[in-house]
């Protein structure tokens, strides 16, 4: 079976978040299930420069304002089709944002072009697998020509634009309807993906349930309840060859489940990189500094962390006001709190390999990769009991501790008070050396690979083709 994946980013070519990691890792995982995946990507400069043996397979004299063509090639173990359109994608840097940090004004056209190209490229493929709002119009352009699976990575990003956009899309008039891509009087890219898809997946079972409620559905819960029979949650995984503490060159000392003691050397280097002194448990927050991710909850709960003798390392970028709060926390608590504002893949990996625990206090989280990385690198995660965090971390409650199954600490609701309680629980476990060593072993032993989830995707694809 051949699947055409459609996405706006893909690791290692272009990445702004977890979407890229999933799109980059899933083809290799599905290959083990006998499914071949070709990935359609926009022709950003970084993608075109990496493409090997690009052969033109389709050309347009004019596609949304300029010439374009589809190039078929490969790189980094990925089979690719790339939409080369310099007027749409020939811009360096972030794939979505201009130099001013704001969305490119023509983003709706840029990603409408991706959807149209998907319909053109789909010939010869058994299934089209579209990811997130940027690929949401693929179904509108396909109009049933191929079975479509649509995956929601984060319902909060919906691609909503004014109705004035619709005439520029080249779609039949009847597509601008409730039974189409019309959404509260405008054009909804994500809504279109949900409407036209034969199957809808999201990245954890708990999130699949949450988005069908008014509290978690962000305006789309009615449609998702209507389509409930088509909705399923399949957990994300990690490329465990890429994320491997036994071979990771970003670590000061490599380690494994059989020899976890070397983690101590990584902690020492991590402390130095963040200007931290000696103390109790070293907590790490790594990710977007955004309301969704709960960094404000960490800062509000900081007195409880410090009262337990804890240290805190913060790595991330995002909301300017939250960046400023992180810098202030580090300035007020020298040697206890360190903040690096920016994204540094190597430093993030060192953090996972050296921190005692990783904080993932998201207010909502479709799946989350930070907690999977933390488990893989033996840093028990402290997580909110939401979405994929609830599905992947076993709370260190009395029953789990007695059974020897705990891998981290969960808390609810997403509040500073609840997080403070979780920090106190985590610090108490850290001081109980045998209990902490057992939980760290459980984390290192947790299966965070794609193996089971790839099998579920394969079953879904096969059922769709056969059904």
What is the topology?
Elements: E1 2-6, H1 18-31, E2 36-42, H2 45-50, E3 52-60, E4 68-75, E5 78-84, H3 86-89, H4 107-121, E6 127-131, H5 138-142, E7 148-152, E8 160-161, E9 182-183, E10 186-188, H6 189-196, E11 199-202, H7 205-210, H8 221-226, E12 231-233, H9 263-273, E13 282-286, H10 295-300, H11 302-307, E14 311-316, H12 320-332, E15 337-341, H13 345-354, E16 357-360, H14 370-376, E17 381-384, H15 387-392, H16 398-403, E18 409-411, H17 416-431, H18 433-445, H19 451-466
Parallel strand pairs: 1-2, 1-6, 2-5, 6-7, 7-11, 11-12, 13-14, 13-16, 14-15, 16-17, 17-18
Antiparallel strand pairs: 3-4, 4-5, 8-10, 9-10
Enzyme class: transferase
Pathway: Glycan biosynthesis; glycogen biosynthesis
Protein name: Glycogen synthase
List keywords for this structure.
alpha/beta; nine-stranded mixed β-sheet; globular; Rossmann fold; 19% strand
Percent range of helical residues: 25-40%
**Rg (CA only):** 23 Å
Structural class from helices and strands?
A: alpha/beta
Return residue spans where pLDDT drops below 50 for at least 5 consecutive residues: none
- Report the biggest beta sheet as strand number plus sense, adding barrel if it closes: 9 strands, mixed
State the CATH superfamily name of the largest domain. Answer: Glycogen Phosphorylase B
Judging by the overall fold, what is the CATH architecture of the largest domain?
3-Layer(aba) Sandwich
Q: Within the largest sheet, what's the order of strands? A: 3-4-5-2-1-6-7-11-12
Q: List the domain count as a whole number.
A: 2
Strand content: 15-25%
Number of helices: 19
- CATH class descriptor of the largest domain: Alpha Beta
N-to-C terminal Cα separation, in Å? Answer: 14 Å
């Amino acid at each position: 079976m051949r699947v055409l994946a459609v996405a706006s980013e893909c690791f290692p070519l272009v990445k702004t978040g977890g979407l890229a990691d999933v799109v980059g890792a899933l083809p290799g995982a599905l290959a083990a299930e006998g499914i071949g995946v070709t990935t359609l990507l926009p022709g950003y400069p970084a993608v075109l420069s990496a493409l090997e043996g690009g052969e033109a397979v389709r050309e347009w004299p004019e596609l949304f304002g300029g010439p374009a063509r589809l190039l078929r090639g490969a790189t980094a173990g990925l089979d690719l089709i790339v939409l080369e359109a310099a007027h749409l994608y020939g811009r360096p840097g972030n794939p979505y944002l201009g130099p001013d940090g704001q969305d490119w004004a023509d983003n709706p056209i840029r990603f409408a072009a991706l959807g149209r190209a998907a319909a053109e490229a789909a010939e010869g493929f058994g299934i089209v697998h579209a990811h997130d709002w940027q690929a949401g119009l693929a179904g509108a352009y396909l109009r049933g020509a191929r079975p479509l699976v649509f995956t929601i990575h984060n319902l909060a990003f919906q691609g909503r634009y004014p109705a004035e956009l619709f005439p520029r899309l080249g779609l039949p008039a009847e597509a601008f309807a409730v039974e189409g891509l019309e959404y509260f009087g405008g054009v909804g890219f994500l809504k279109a993906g949900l409407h036209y898809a034969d199957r809808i997946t999201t990245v954890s079972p708990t999130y699949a349930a949450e988005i069908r409620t008014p509290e978690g559905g962000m305006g789309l819960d009615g449609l998702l309840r209507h389509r409930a029979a088509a909705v399923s949650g399949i957990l994300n995984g990690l490329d465990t060859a890429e994320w491997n503490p036994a071979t990771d060159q970003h670590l000061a000392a490599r380690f494994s489940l059989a020899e976890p003691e070397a983690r101590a050397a990584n902690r020492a280097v991590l402390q130095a990189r963040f200007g931290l002194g000696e103390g109790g448990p070293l907590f790490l927050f790594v990710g977007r500094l955004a309301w969704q991710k709960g960094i404000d909850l960490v800062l509000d709960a900081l007195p409880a962390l410090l009262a337990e003798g804890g240290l805190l390392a913060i790595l991330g970028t995002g909301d300017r006001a939250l960046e400023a709060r992180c810098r202030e926390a580090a300035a007020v608590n020298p040697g206890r709190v360190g903040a690096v504002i920016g994204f540094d893949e190597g430093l993030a990996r060192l953090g996972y390999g050296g921190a005692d625990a990783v904080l993932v206090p998201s207010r909502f989280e479709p799946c989350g990769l930070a907690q999977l990385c933390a488990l893989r690198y033996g840093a028990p995660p402290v997580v909110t009991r939401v979405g994929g965090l609830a599905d992947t971390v076993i709370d260190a409650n009395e029953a789990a501790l007695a059974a020897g199954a705990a891998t981290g600490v969960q808390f609810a609701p997403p509040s500073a008070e609840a997080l403070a309680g979780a920090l106190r629980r985590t610090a108490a476990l850290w001081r109980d050396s045998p209990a902490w060593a057992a939980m760290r072993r459980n984390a290192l032993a947790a299966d965070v690979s794609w193996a089971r989830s790839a099998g579920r995707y394969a079953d879904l694809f096969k059922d769709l083709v056969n059904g």
